[in-house]
Amino acid sequence: MEVIVAKNIGFCFGVKRAVDAVYEQAEKDGNIYTYGAITHNEEVVKDLEKKGVSVIGSAKELESIQEGTVIIRAHGVAQSFYEQIGRQGLKYIDMTCPFVKRIHDIVEKESAAGKQIVIIGNAGHPEIEGIVGWCKTPAIVIESLDEAKEFDYTGEKELCVVSQTTYNYNKFQDIVEIFKQKGYNVIIENTICNATEVRQTEAREIAAKVDVMIVIGGNHSSNTRKLYEICMQECENTYFIQTLDDLNLDLSESVKLVGITAGASTPNNIIEEVQNYVRINF
């Protein structure tokens, strides 16, 4: 049996940069907080907790912090967060992914110029909440093709459409096409990061030719969930696991090819454990 492991796999640039910053800061100072889990991977979060890193879950929780350093994760935060940090006199390290920061800049500028901001992405996801928090006027969030079809915009403002960096690239294009067919006056900013697009394309290509596909990532990882959805479209025998402990494979002799990919929040050691197990045991 052959195992195909995706080349574009594991921590993306933004996540690796943020995680490295937390580990580095934890070595210098024991009073460290991250605003939300630094990455949507429970194994990484547990390891950082052992090093004294605490997770703040809301602005209200932040109010109780008197001293220490707060690290902003790659997902980014709303503009109001920086204002709150300033009022409380706390130190912070901004590890917002540059691709996310670019979206903040776009929506801030275009909403101030009078455009209606439409964000394509998963409502409630921290990246989306951060983007909304940079809009000068209320933004509209659309998550699915069905929502796009039901969307009926009667306002006079020009629409400025951006996307969550980890959104499904093909779905984004389909939603944009729906807007165009409706005749809306739109400017399109494809803000899906290149790493996401490459990762999704490769996952689709691998899943289309294997008998079994394994997708590794955190249960709360949006980009991993999208990889799983993409792979399921191409290979019905697709498994979504967080660690090797979740992998329960019963492969028949007819299985000749197994593919493996992983989300942007998955550490290399977990990926290696899974691929080594599959290579040795099947």
Task: Present the secondary structure layout.
Elements lengths: L1 E4 L7 H16 L3 E4 L6 H9 L2 E4 L2 H5 L5 E4 L6 H10 L2 E4 L3 H15 L3 E5 L5 H7 L7 E3 L2 H6 L8 E5 L5 H13 L4 E3 L5 H14 L4 E5 L5 H13 L3 E4 L15 E6 L5 H14 L1
Parallel strand pairs: 1-12, 2-3, 2-4, 4-5, 6-7, 6-8, 8-9, 10-11, 10-12
Helix pairs in contact: 5-6, 9-10
- Give the termini separation: 7 Å
Percent helix, as a range, is 40-55%
- Helix and strand content put the structural class at alpha/beta
Largest sheet: 4 strands, parallel
Order of helices and strands: EHEHEHEHEHEHEHEHEHEHEEH
Instruction: Estimate the global geometry from the Cα principal axes.
Output: flat
Radius of gyration: 20 Å
Estimate the strand proportion: 15-25%
Q: Count of DSSP helices? A: 11
Count the beta strands: 12
Q: Residue ranges: pLDDT <50 for 5 or more in a row?
A: none
User: Mean pLDDT across all residues, rounded?
Assistant: 95
Strand order, largest beta sheet:
1-12-10-11
Describe this protein's structure:
The protein has 282 residues and is of the alpha/beta class. The chain is 43% helix and 18% strand. It has a four-stranded parallel β-sheet with strand order 1-12-10-11, with helices on both faces. Helix 9 packs parallel to helix 10. It is flat. The model has no long low-confidence stretch (mean pLDDT 95).
